[in-house]
Amino acid sequence: MIAKINTGSNLYGALAYNQKKVDEGMGKVLATNLVCEPIYGHFSVQGCAADFARWMPSPEHLPTKKPVIHISLNPHPDDKLADNQLADIGREYMERLGYGGQPYLIFKHEDIGRDHIHIVSLRVDCEGKLIKDSFEHKRSKEIIELLL
Fold first, then answer.
1. Is the Cβ–Cβ distance between 90 and 143 less than 8 Å?
2. What's the pTM value of the predicted model, to 2 decimals?
3. Which of 29, 33, 128, 134 has the fewest CB atoms within 10 Å distance of its CB?
């Protein structure tokens, strides 16, 4: 499995990218954490962004210019994992990386010939503190090895 971690400032863009895959029938939302699930099961970018905003400190209190984290977890092409397995991998990964208490969405993408997941979350907690990101890429690699 390979993990790719991106940070940025555009929460709406990260959500829109993933929701577009869902809307095109090449993806789905597998799991959420601290994000309200819609009554009729159809997520919207606007609704999710508004829900994430509940957790985001005001811009003047942000400790970083890049409060958004967008992670892609790509299993080996030979690994055929069920949706519940992919969701469990995503949850465990977020917990071990230190984001288990953060709001996040786990999306499954089926657009490149192999299933993989994307996770959108916040790097800043509701008190305005940056989630510990020291050696994040190294820790991510170690977590991936444990999850396999």
1. no
2. 0.95
3. 134
